[in-house]
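Re: weekly structure request thread

Next one in the queue (325 aa):
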Amino acid sequence: MVASRETQIYRQDARKRHTVLTAGQREDLLKPYLPPPPKTDLQTPRSSTPSLRGFLKNKFHLFVFTVIHIVFSVYIRMRQTYHVVFDRVLAILYYHHRAPELIRQDVKGLSRLPEHLSVVLEFKSGDRGQAGLETLMEEAAEISAWCTCVGISMLSIYERTGILKHYIPNTHRAVSSKMHAYFGRKAPSVQIGAPSMSSFLNGNAAARADISNATGQLSILLLSAEDGRSTLVDLTKTLTEMSQRNKLSPNDISQDLIDAEITESVMGEPDLLILFGPYVQLVGYPPWQIRLTEIYHIQDNNGVGYQVFLRALHNYAKAQMKFGR
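Done, posted below.
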């Protein structure tokens, strides 16, 4: 502690606005009570010029990085080339020629087929004019025809923006036209709908119904990103409000109840989900419905192809459904 005499001198100088003591006297007064100054580093400072060792180390790291980059690039190119050639060979060997008999022959030996098939398509908005929309409708029509040929009665098509929902009549015409190209005069009926929207059956708008129980031989459900998380959020709000108003007990809220509500408002769980992109990207696909769904994709694939559809069915037939066991 500072001595009382020195404290009085310092306070007297402070009251007179530091006119009694000089700056040097104040420093001498406080110097005995200050911590010792840090020891200076007497070592010679390192030279700012990079040493030969550092130069060689940097060059070695650059060499290793370059080698890894080259090896990985060669691997990627070889893998892409292999997949392109392999898919092209399959496309030639298993080309359907728009003949339902050939498509049925391709899946004849499968032990099982999905009852509900779902696919993820991409709308390429960068295309000029309506080209992107026409391409999307053409892809949906092709997949619909393949499903009908193999005996799949329920198809759900997910496209993130939901543009197909605004063109349900046009989509129905595209699918019906494709069905006639495959089946001729014996083309099956097609029903197209979307959650919370009226369905479209054989060129006529029908009342909203459970599309999974449609009378047509093929039922198509159009999905978008708004049918995913937003549906779960709305259902959560509804159940919360009902519980707060004592219309529903919290003990009554179960997984079966949520399953039933989501199945009624959107759709049930698909058996197989096919991704036609090179990566597993669900891009907002309804999450609740794919808990037990078999998801299939092919590396380096870009675009809808019959060989991808066929390989997905073969993979589904061989898959073991353990359901968490």
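Confidence is low (pLDDT under 50) at residues 207-216. The chain is about 45% helix and 10% strand.
Next request, please.
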